Amino acid sequence: MSKKLKLRYKFFLGKTKKEISGELGLEYNYYPSDIWYYEIAVTFFFRKTTLILNFTEGVVTAINIKKHYGKINT
């Protein structure tokens, strides 16, 4: 995982679900879920870069970025 890419999204830490959904939308995320996924890039060979936001009590507590092919395995 690229540290520069992770730092780009660090400002989401401490934000609520309402603030995140206002900025990024809900896409395919289930609002009560504690983990939300956002696709931030897709390359020519369909390699995806996904932003993963972990919530605790409705506030972002962790940010991860995962590069993968196909579906993401959690």
Keywords summarizing the entry:
74 residues; alpha+beta; 3-stranded antiparallel β-sheet; 2 helices; 3 strands; 39% strand; globular
Radius of gyration: 12 Å
Silhouette = globular
The helix content, as a percent range, equals 10-25%
Helix/strand class: alpha+beta
Number of strands: 3
Give a structural overview.
The radius of gyration is 12 Å and the shape is globular. It has helices at residues 3-8, 17-24, and strands at 35-42, 47-56, 59-69. Helix content is 19%, strand content 39%. It has 74 residues and is an alpha+beta fold. The model has no long low-confidence stretch (mean pLDDT 90).
Topology:
Blueprint lengths: L2 H6 L8 H8 L10 E8 L4 E10 L2 E11 L5
Antiparallel strand pairs: 1-2, 2-3
Short description:
The protein is 19% helix and 39% strand. The chain has helices at residues 3-8, 17-24, and strands at 35-42, 47-56, 59-69.
